[in-house]
Amino acid sequence: VRSRRQRQMCIRDRIYSYHHGAIQELNKIVEHKDSEIKVLQLKTTSLEEQNIKLKSRLDAIEKHLGAHFFE
């Protein structure tokens, strides 16, 4: 026959086991999301750089065209 103390310890151990498993799963999810965030940050930086280059080219084209229209 189990004592009350043994039942309490068994319940405590089961709860700990469930929580530990849940925490491990959440950590995996967080790591995956962190990885996704890093990829998106790199893509964003690349797109921002491309945008700056395209704006510069567009400004040069507009300046060139404007100079010809107003001659």
Concise overview:
The chain is mainly α and 71 residues long.
Task: Describe what you observe in this structure.
- Helices cover 93% and strands 0% of the residues.
- It contains one helix and no strands.
- It has one helix at 4-69.
- The longest helix has 66 residues, at 4-69.
The strand count comes to 0
Q: Write down the Rg.
A: 30 Å
Structural class: mainly alpha
Low-pLDDT stretches are none
Average residue-wise pLDDT = 92
SSE succession: H
The portion of residues forming beta strands comes to under 5%
Helical content stands at: over 70%
Number of helices: 1
| Span of the ends, CA to CA | 104 Å
Could you say which overall geometry the principal axes of the C-alpha atoms support? rod-shaped
The biggest beta sheet is recorded as: none
List the helices and strands and how they pair.
Blueprint lengths: L3 H66 L2
Keywords:
71 residues; mainly alpha; 93% helix
